[in-house]
Amino acid sequence: MQKRYEELIQLIEKANHEYYNLDNPSVDDRTWDSWMAELIKIEEDYPELKKADSPTNRIGHVIISEFKKVKHRYPMISLSNAFNEEELITFDEKIRKEFANPEYVCELKMDGLAVSFIYERGLLVTAATRGDGIHGEDITHNVKTIKSIPLKIHQDIDIEVRGEIYMPLASFIKLNEERLQKSETIFQNPRNAAAGSVRQLDSKIAKSRNLDAYLYHEPNTNCATQYESLNYLKKLGFKVNPHIKLAKNIKEVIDYVNEWTNKRGELPYDIDGVVIKVNNINMQEELGMTARCPKWAIAYKFPAEEVKTKLTDIICTVGRTGQVTPNAIFDPTKVMGSTISRATLHNGDFIKERDLRIGDNIIIRKAGDVIPEVVSSIPNERDGSEIEYVMPLNCPICETKLIKSATNIDLICPNDDCPARNIEGLIHFASRNAMNIEGLGERIMEDFYNMKIIKNFIDIYKLESHQEMIMELEGFGKKSVNNLLESIEKSKTNSLEKLLFGLGIKGIGEKTAKTLAKKYSNLENIMNASIEELELIPDIGPILAANLFHYFKAEENLQMVEAFKDIGINMDYHGEKIIENQNFTGKKIVVTGSLNKYGREEIQNIIELNGGLWSSSVSKNTDIVIVGENAGSKHQKALELNLTIWDEEELDKMLKI
Question: Domains plus CATH for the chain?
Fold first, then answer.
């Protein structure tokens, strides 16, 4: 019986692969159905035989209570964007400064949901959303219902792969038709429908949505090129987009982009651009990263759809730093699959440059297919009733007289107690990248502020005393209140950098907060640092040093820190601490070629933990170049500039000193 059972699994998965991945079925539906029925019967009669890669695991009967967080083994990074041919050429010029005649791989940019898949000994064990790039949500129970994603690959290996889950247009149309018949809200576009489907607690719902997926990346590949890696993924049994192209130069890249700009409407799924990657993996490693994006890849975004609508009003909002921002309010309009009704106008100069008047017909679009943007007014359609807009003299919230920013472009509300500034500051403190308090979004925070439940950061940690009042609000029940309180309690254990970023000190972003937390280990050390000492930290400078120093000299902020201590909020850095190594501290270091003992991310982390500054390009400001095997043009440039050069043996020696 076991032999027949395993034979059925192989037959069904082979048939699934042929049908869903190769679009070339070798058996009819009746045969497939009979195999599946036989398999189910065996598992019912002999439950001890059931295997993790059984096709019956795709049937969709798993219901979870909540989504668990998953830390990605390798960060799921985003790509920088290009919007025209000139930007693609600039991207190529930067690559060719480091390497002559680079090849590129062109891939269609699926408009779906990026997902990481972990296989152990060939079996799918975890699938997780991108999330914030470091942590995602475990959606394995739903992913197992997608028939194009193998439960077991063709080799018994451990591997992580990345791909895009999407909803085919036919599935999207069918889903919305069904929702209309049930008087349910329809999805705005296939991307939203796919994202909503994989975040269902009940896997039966995800299965009914007929999702699909293409795989495109193996973050720890042993292949020499991206093109080889894609073909390797196909050999393992993954579905890879058939329209990939190996381009010998940027002209072939541009030809590919132009081809699919015109042909995108012929596809059975949505794409929003083309991803271009340097083909050679060693070159990718040499080129490295900026703070947020790889230097070896770029996403070309198709031209944005432009739509006409009517500008009905301009209103100003006030941010946590006091900046006053005008916003366009226009008739709700569908653009790129979603309905929008407002867009930022940035400042008064922006309004004048586009000659915008209330009552104008205007052209709008989504910049990068994401952010609503007002392109222009249509002056020749005016009837004389339009009203010119003048920026306010006083804060629209607290009536304080506005002042000009240091750049003389923006207007600032100087009132530290302005309610709008306070609300925005509270929202920032609770946001995902700061204290990450789930359930305290913009609307809820504004409600709590207006109800005088939360007036400052400390009040967030006293919400438990307002449970009865909160439960009277629409959308709040006992469970949601408990979840909110649990999230607040959990935030007390965050590492120092999240608290430091959440405080909203002017100019202190995520990266700078982490740099400070690593260097000083705890908040008290940061508070005791002098301006001169702070200025010496890379990327801080005199302005940020002064902002930080004076923030912690203000009496109200000192009182807040003491209150944080009483509440039990962690003020220590939980990550790996910087070692003061004189051979590395403050020095800009570039690594070129392959190192035997260290991977690219590992050596970057080692350099930073020893106080060094990781850099991906060689210049006269570079202090040290570490050279491995097959070093490229960076080694030659280091020789020309007479820079300090270490091999791996010298690196190890300097680490031990």
Answer: 2-58 (1.10.287.610), 81-299 (3.30.470.30), 307-404 (2.40.50.140), 419-491 (1.10.150.20), 496-567 (1.10.150.20), 588-656 (3.40.50.10190)
